[in-house]
Input
Amino acid sequence: MDADVFNMSIRKFLKTVGVHSQHEIEQAITKAIESGKLKGNEALPAKMVLTIDGVGLNVSFDGEVQLE
Output
């Protein structure tokens, strides 16, 4: 295994996940506020699940998305 290639691959994957996740969250929250489902001052529980096939990795990260 080439440690540098491995490290860069992980960083690239996490950057992609971060950028796309933020975009999806922003769109979902905006739509929910526009439809009246949310008021815009909530704190919403959030969960991210990371899985990697082949190594049996399945880990959850819990957090909160605050709108105000």
Notes: The longest strand covers residues 43-52. The CA atoms of residues 8 and 48 lie 22 Å apart. The radius of gyration is 16 Å. Helices lie at 3-35.
